[in-house]
Amino acid sequence: MAGILFIISAPSGSGKSTLVSQLRSLVDNLEFSVSYTTRSPRGSEQQGREYHFTDRPSFEEMVAGDEFLEHAEVFGNYYGTAVRSLRDAEARAKDLLLDIDVQGAAQVRKKIPDAISIFVMPPSKEDLAARLRNRSRAEGSITAETEKVIDRRLAQAGSEIVNYRQYGYILVNDILENAVEELAAIVSAERIRRSGREPDLEERRLIELAEGCRQTNAMARLQPVLSSFGLYDQTTVPT
Q: 174 lies in a domain?
C-alpha cells in the first residue's frame, strides 16, 4: 500500500546516511527525497544525489515561494525538503522517505500527523566523537579548529537526542547489519498495518522486530546512550 511518509532523523555522524542507502537497496517502492542545502559538498558527494546544492539567495527565493514542505537552518546552512518530492511520490504510488533533522521533522509532523517517525541514535557520545573524527580524517586532517567543530556537533547531538520523545521508533546504530534489518522491518510493518490484511509468518516476525524498536519498547537500549550524553529518561509518549 503506497503513500506512507517515513521521517528519519539522527545527530550528524550517527550513520544515518549509510542506513538509508542500504535500506533503499533492500526495499521496493520507496522513494528518497533529496533535500536542498546551501552547504558545500563533502568528499564524494554529488549534485542531485546526496543533496541539491544551491546558494542562499536561491534557497530563500524557494522559501518565499512556499516551495518547501519543511526547512531549517543548521550550523549556518539552510536545509529543506521540496513539496514536489511528496507530490511526485504520490503520483507514482510510492512511499517517501525524508532524511531530515529534528526541526524539519517537527514541521512535517504538524502538516502530516500520520507520518512515521524514526530517530537513529549513536551507541554513545564517545562512539559518536570517534565517528566524527574519522570522518574528518577522511575529508582532510584533524586540526584545532576541527576539534572545535566536533565539540559543537557533540553538543548539538545532545540537544537533538532530547527530542527522541517526539519519534515513534528509536534505532540504536551499534551494529550496522542489525540496524538495517530493524529499519527495513519498520517499513514493512507499517505497510502491513496500513494494508489491513492478515500477516503471514515472516511478516509477523518483521512486525515483532519493528515493535521492539517502538519508543516505549526501546528504553533498555536507549538508557546507556542517554547516560553517555548526561541525559535522563522521562515518561515518553510516542507519536
A: yes
